[in-house]
Write a structure and sequence with these properties.
88 residues; alpha+beta; globular
Length: 88
C-alpha cells in the first residue's frame, strides 16, 4: 500500500463510498498483530484526508471486524473514541 497509485485508488473508493452512503467518515485499515487495534491506511471526513490513527477497537462498532473481517457503519461513528474527540 506504499505506492501512490494504491493510495489514489483507496481515496477514490472512499470518496465513492462516502458519496453514496452519506457517511460522515471513512476509514480502512488492518487489524494489528495483537488483534486489539486497527491501524488506518486511510481516514477521511468527507473529502478531507485526516492523519492516520491506531485505535483500540474493543467496545466500538468495528469490534465485529474481528469475526467478520470487515465492518461498515455509516452511522454512530462517535462510538470510536478518537473520532468522538474530532466531532466535539
Amino acid at each position: 500500500m506504499d505506492k501512490p497509485a494504491d493510495k489514489r485508488f483507496l481515496v477514490e473508493a472512499a470518496l465513492l463510498i462516502l458519496q453514496h452512503s452519506k457517511a460522515e467518515y471513512f476509514l480502512i485499515g488492518p487489524i494489528t498483530p495483537d488483534k486489539e487495534h486497527v491501524r488506518t491506511l486511510l481516514l477521511m471526513k468527507g473529502d478531507k484526508r485526516l492523519d492516520n490513527i491506531t485505535y483500540a477497537f474493543r467496545g466500538t462498532p468495528c469490534e465485529t471486524a474481528r469475526t467478520y473481517g470487515f465492518c461498515f457503519f455509516p452511522f454512530n461513528v462517535s462510538l470510536i473514541p478518537k473520532i468522538r474527540r474530532w466531532r466535539n
